[in-house]
Design goal:
heterodimer, A: 45% helix, B: alpha/beta, 16 strands
Chain lengths: 595, 593
């Protein structure tokens, strides 16, 4: 089974969000954007430990922008799918199938004004909550569903030692109890006797004995004889039934307690224990599905641990368990499976949710994107805008060009994404899905003119991708024919509207054709110790002859595009970029400012 | 949910009977052929409890389908003793209840069966009107539409799968009639009782996922009284169990098949036993009746069976009462001679039953008993409490609680509340709905404790304080609220029909009340002494019975059902020189060893 959709309306930060989900979820977003509220919304439906008094929300829980009379109800709907292969889960959920699709179970929470209250409710008492399934209010969700499909909140990563140290709350407890139940009474008695012996030995040491006597006397002095609690110094309880409660986890070959471990290691131990507890509960048939929620683990885990732990946890697919991790850590986001990512963003007073669960990309494209995000520490996911470019030369020059135009990309939160070629499509789909302002800077690539320029098809493909992600109708054959027939200048004008900015040749040729950049470019070429023919050509270009693209590119090939870019970057400070790049930067800066 | 201890004890109790023990541990398809008094219900309930503990893991459960609500209530009571309660893990109910609550209710809105979300169940009047409209539209003949509808009903119950050629191949004009009738009901957003299993069958057949969902919830299906359940259930069983992977545990006795008029056919049960994947187990011991009565019953049936009594059980005795005149004088003999004689022999009134073919005969017996001042309780269609009505049984339970049951939780309030919730809301009710319902119910029940309200006044208050508000909020599509009105009319003090509430609740002094029952309603019950009233040549078999060999067999099975009810004593009452021919066979067989 997996979580396949969550929708929330009129609740706290959320006016109305609908999030497709793909199993595990990594919930990214700034502080106060509503990550915990989203988890709480799911708890309202699934948490078996949440009392009714908590489900009876407050008027302040309504979304602030809603109607003042609270006439719009708070609603949470969670959809579960792929449960048909598990007979126990099917038995639990079959009554709650969605009318539009019987393979999906829909569970809902609604909080609303009671029907017999006229006018605006005065307090929470004028409202009622319902938890039901199948989209029908009358099908109330029995508590056994919550008990067997349960949510567990691990905000306690903040206090791993405390949780591990407390017998009642320790996830070690049920596991130990189970393990101990397999030991015969005789064997337990033997252990208890050994412990008792060790304790007696301890008490024979005079200093210990003295300390114990002093403490006992102190207590009796305070409480009086009638209330003497008979305090003793012990290794552990020697009652055979309680003896195993003294068992604790030790690290470093038993030398140190878990409390002495670094914060990170204790947390990893806690997580591992929690997962062991879940599988134990399933084995005992107490539970059929566990949803584990971990809030901001980065605050309590080293980056290296974050990477290795969550790569394992999020990457594994387990039909009987799912995980929701909230985070603003790029380290964690970088190892998250792409489809698990859900981003929360505040827009105009309400939080929007952007999910990559249904991103229309192929498995190969997912690999590309995940590798890129991993290598760049998921910078893209946290950017406010992005400029996609083809290669190293542009990567080196773009920040310089922007600053020539008076913009600091870093300060604006605009990232430059080098796709290393011309396959922009998965990246554009990603940016569209994240509603991230972006532009694509790419070459027209007219080749030798005998075939259609490559830039045209590339642009049209991106356009179609954009429409696909937005859920809009694709370009029709007549529209396509119109774009096919256009020349470069007309086409590039319209392409810019679709965020694609084209030159008329290639990047290097555009640089050469930009008056302010020609001199620095020629300076770099001159420094190459070319032969007499090339030196003469450079001199001619310097004198004003038109630059021949083929010959220019041949020279650049000798240097390497990347190195040329790097060298040019050093000389280009304050110089205006080629026009199409200027337009691209201006467009992204404007949309970032607007957003 | 069932406790291991109760189960272990129940299993131990079966040890002395190898066939019963064998049946309850089966893990494949199993059919148990169970003669009268053979411990059928015990076997079924023990098997069900065992499966819930040992074979089926929570949250999955089992379903048990039986003939009517009376049987369902009996099973629930017996299962409760084994720790199995009706709820999410155990469905216990009729085939209609199963179709409605487990198939149509949850899934109709996911498939296109043309049912509105809040469909209702047609009343008798609505159904009759729809028959007339359909007859006009589809046949437009000059016959009585309702006479034709009787044939159509038979076809409708028989040809369950309408994709088979028989549907249009045989009597196509009836098929058109039926379709027009159903279309007329749907137009009004209604279904009728016969629709329920048919709709469920169609939905399950056309949607494999529904089959899988049912298997997820109920990996084992129990069917009680298989011989009484018609073609619709049989087709459902074939689909779910032999194509859908659900395990079947069916119990029945073809000799006791007496519901042909409702579409039952003993051949369906027999056909199951011929399937190679089914293990058939016959229970041979009759724990109920004395040896002489067992032999007599085989004479009544006219066929031989290897049934045997338990060693050491008393033989039992037979009496033949020939009365000079017809029904009235036979009823007088029952009241003035036979019952006093049985009482003199030490039988308690509550352990004596007078059985007859039809309710109008019951009226005659009732009148005679009233004259003779013998208390009685009727369980036929003219009974005050309809035993197959869940509402009527609930009202009776409420009376029992009020008149003393509250002291020792018999019945428990929890059970009353859960009955009320089912009656009003069906399967799902929110916490708040439960609380509101409980508040109303407790207020009503408490008010009558220690009061001197008569049954009539109490029922009126029941109607006013409970039925009226419940009707408004009810979501159960199988509603029978009018039953309470009928009960109020049947206790009218101006017609001298009213009596104390304690009496209604069955709490009366002395040795109880004589049971008056039709043969049909007596099925599944047992008494120390049974008086078969009106065993006349013209009554059983009647002229109507003799019209076809099938109906003659059915009448004989009905006679057999009556004869197999007593434990110790059987009396047959008939007009002198005018006895049923089967009485002779019964007598002769009883004299053999």
């Amino acid at each position: 089974m997996r979580l396949s959709n969550l929708s929330i309306s009129n609740f706290r930060n959320f006016q109305s969000i609908n999030i497709p989900l793909a199993g595990n979820v990594v919930l990214l977003g700034q502080n106060r954007v509503g990550k915990s509220n989203l988890l709480f919304a799911i708890q309202l439906i699934l948490d078996p430990t949440l009392p009714d008094s908590a489900r009876q929300l407050k008027l302040t829980d309504f979304w602030d922008g809603g109607p003042a009379d609270y006439s719009a109800p708070i609603e949470v709907h969670l959809e579960l799918s792929d449960f048909a292969t598990d007979m126990a889960l099917t038995a639990l959920l079959t009554d709650f199938r969605a009318p539009h699709d019987p393979t999906i179970a829909q569970l809902s929470f609604v909080f609303r004004k009671k029907s017999d209250i006229t006018g605006a409710p005065q307090s929470s008492a004028d409202c009622e909550f319902l938890v039901f399934g199948g989209g029908e209010e009358t099908r109330s969700l029995p508590s056994r569903v919550r008990r067997r499909i349960a949510i567990d909140l691990l905000d306690a990563l903040r206090d791993a030692e405390g949780q591990l140290g407390n017998w009642r709350s320790s996830p070690l407890r049920p596991l130990l109890e189970d393990a101990v139940s397999g030991i015969s009474r005789t064997d337990i008695d033997a252990v208890a006797a050994e412990l008792d012996k060790a304790t007696k030995t301890l008490e024979t040491f005079p200093t210990i004995k003295t300390l114990e006597d002093e403490l006992r006397a102190g207590i009796v002095h305070l409480s009086g004889k009638a209330h003497d609690i008979d305090a003793r110094l012990r290794f552990g309880p020697t009652d055979p039934l309680r003896v195993f409660r003294a068992i604790a986890m030790f690290i470093d070959n038993g030398k140190r307690g878990i409390a002495d471990a670094s914060l990170g290691s204790a947390n990893v131990a806690l997580l591992a224990l929690k997962l062991a507890e879940f599988s134990w509960r399933r084995k005992k048939n107490e539970r059929n599905f566990s949803l584990l929620c971990i809030e901001e683990p980065e605050a309590h885990l080293h980056p290296q641990l974050q990477r290795s732990v969550f790569k394992k946890l999020l990457g594994s697919v387990d039909a009987s368990q799912a995980m929701i991790v909230t985070s603003h850590s790029p380290t964690l986001a970088a190892v998250a499976p792409l489809r698990s990512i859900v981003q929360l963003k505040n827009q105009g007073g309400a939080t929007q949710a952007l999910s990559l669960a249904n991103l229309p990309v192929t498995p190969d494209e997912i690999d590309d994107l995940e590798n890129y995000l991993n290598a760049t520490r998921a910078e893209l996911l946290f950017a406010r805008g992005v400029i996609f470019i083809e290669g190293d030369a542009e990567e080196a020059l773009l920040p310089i060009f922007a600053s020539s135009l008076g913009h600091s990309l870093d300060e604006l939160g605009i990232t430059v994404c080098n796709v290393g070629g011309v396959n922009f499509r998965p990246y554009v789909k990603l940016a569209e899905a994240l509603k991230l302002p972006y532009c694509v800077i790419t070459d027209w690539d007219p080749l030798d003119g005998s075939k259609p320029p490559l830039g045209r098809k590339r642009t049209i493909d991106l356009w179609q991708d954009m429409l696909t992600v937005r859920g809009q109708p694709l370009l029709t054959p007549p529209q396509l024919a119109k774009w096919e027939a256009m020349d470069h200048s007309a086409f590039s004008l319209d392409a810019a509207k679709a965020h694609v900015f084209l030159n008329d040749q290639t990047f290097e040729v555009s640089v050469a054709n930009t008056p302010s950049l020609l001199q620095p470019l020629l300076d770099i070429l001159s420094g190459q110790d070319f032969g007499s023919v090339r030196t003469a050509r450079i001199a001619a270009w310097r004198a004003g002859a038109a630059v021949d693209p083929a010959q220019l590119l041949a020279m650049i090939a000798n240097i390497g595009k990347g190195r040329l870019g790097a060298r040019l970057a050093k000389k280009a400070a304050g110089l205006k970029p080629p026009t199409y790049i200027e337009s691209a930067i201006a467009a992204v800066v404007a949309s970032v400012a607007h957003a | 949910m069932p406790s291991d201890r109760a189960l272990i004890q129940a299993l131990a109790e079966l040890k002395t009977n190898p066939e019963q023990s064998d049946a309850v541990v089966q893990t494949g398809h199993c059919v148990v052929l169970a003669g009268p008094g053979s411990g059928k219900t015990k076997t079924l309930t023990t098997a069900m409890a065992r499966v819930l503990v040992q074979d089926v893991v929570d949250p999955r459960g089992v379903a048990c389908i039986t003939y009517n609500n009376e049987c369902a209530i009996e099973l629930e009571t017996r299962l409760a003793r084994l720790g199995v309660t009706r709820g999410d893990r155990a469905f216990i109910g009729t085939v209609h209840g199963f179709a409605l609550s487990q198939v149509i209710g949850p899934y109709a809105r996911c498939v296109s069966e043309g049912l509105p979300l809040n469909f209702g169940v047609a009343t008798r009047l609505e159904a009759r009107a729809a028959v007339e409209v359909a007859y006009r539209n589809a046949i437009a003949g000059a016959d009585d539409p309702h006479r034709r509808w009787e044939f159509a009903t038979e076809k409708r119950r028989h040809d369950v799968d309408r994709t088979r050629p028989e549907w249009r191949g045989r009597n196509p004009e009836l098929a058109t009639f039926i379709e027009a009738y159903e279309a007329e009901l749907r137009r009004q957003g209604l279904v009728d009782f016969d629709d329920m299993p048919l709709l469920a069958y169609r939905m399950i057949k056309e949607n494999v996922w529904i089959r899988d969902a049912l298997r997820a919830r109920f990996p084992v299906l129990f069917v009680d009284e298989y011989q009484d359940l018609g073609h619709a259930l049989h087709e459902l069983v074939l689909l779910l169990c032999f194509e859908g992977g659900i395990r079947l545990f069916a119990v029945g006795d073809a000799d006791q098949s007496i519901y042909a008029f409702a579409g039952a056919n003993p051949e369906l049960l027999e056909s199951l036993t011929r399937r190679p994947e089914v293990r058939t187990i016959r229970l041979r011991f009759n724990y109920r009746s004395g040896g002489k009565i067992i032999r007599a019953s085989l004479g009544a049936l006219g066929e031989d069976r290897d049934y045997r009594g338990v060693d050491g059980a008393p033989e039992g005795d037979l009496s033949f009462w020939h009365v000079p005149y017809g029904h009235d004088s036979q009823a007088q003999a029952v009241a003035e001679t036979i019952i006093p004689k049985l009482v003199a022999q030490g039988f308690e009134l509550a352990q004596i039953a007078v059985l007859y073919r039809a309710a109008w005969l019951g009226d005659k017996v009732a009148a005679s008993l009233k004259n003779a001042n013998i208390p009685f309780v009727r369980t036929d269609t003219n009974a005050l409490v309809r035993r197959s009505s869940r509402l009527a049984r609930f009202i009776e339970d409420c009376a029992r609680w009020t008149t003393g049951g509250w002291r020792n939780a018999d019945p428990s309030y929890a059970r009353l509340l859960s009955q009320a919730i089912t009656l009003v809301y069906g399967r799902h009710a929110s916490d708040r709905e439960e609380q509101d319902l409980s508040a109303q119910l407790m207020a009503f029940l408490n008010a009558a404790i220690g009061s001197t309200e008569t049954t009539h006044a109490w029922l009126q208050r029941f109607s006013r304080e409970l039925i009226t508000p419940w009707r408004q909020v009810a979501r159960n599509s199988e509603q029978e609220w009018d039953i309470c009105g009928e009960m109020i009319a049947n206790t009218d003090p101006t017609r001298d029909l009213d009596f104390p509430l304690a009496h209604f609740a069955g709490r009366i002094e002395g040795s109880g009340r004589v049971n008056l029952s039709t043969l049909h309603s007596a099925k599944g019950r047992e008494f120390d002494a049974v008086i078969m009233y009106g065993v006349n040549a013209s009554d059983i078999p009647s002229e109507r019975d003799k019209r076809s060999p099938g109906s003659l067999r059915e009448a004989r099975r009905l006679f057999y059902v009556g004869v197999t009810r007593p434990k110790k004593h059987l009396s047959l009452v008939y007009q002198e020189h005018h006895h049923s021919p089967w009485v002779v066979e019964l007598y002769q067989r009883s004299q053999q060893d």
